[in-house]
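Support request, please re-run this one:
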Amino acid sequence: MTTHAELRKLDKNFDMRVRSKEAVIRLLRNGTLVRPTTCPKCKKQASIEAHHPDYSKPTEIVWLCHKCHMNEHPKCRSLRWDRERRIKYV
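Re-run finished. Output below.
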């Protein structure tokens, strides 16, 4: 398993991404934020994910299904995964 220190070296936005994800989890747990059941982009009922257009604004999120979320990240489709160490290489 890859350590946070190793991921920080590989991804300059790692710390902001982690803080953004933690903020969403906190808001969901305390009821301030409610996860929808339908994707606002494609209108399908699916498991909805939080998309952060700007990691420096952790509470500004767009709810999307996985397919629409990946379409928002075209770079993600070209990343190679090191399955042994569970890290991405650009």
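The two ends are 19 Å apart (CA to CA). The CA atoms of residues 33 and 86 lie 30 Å apart.
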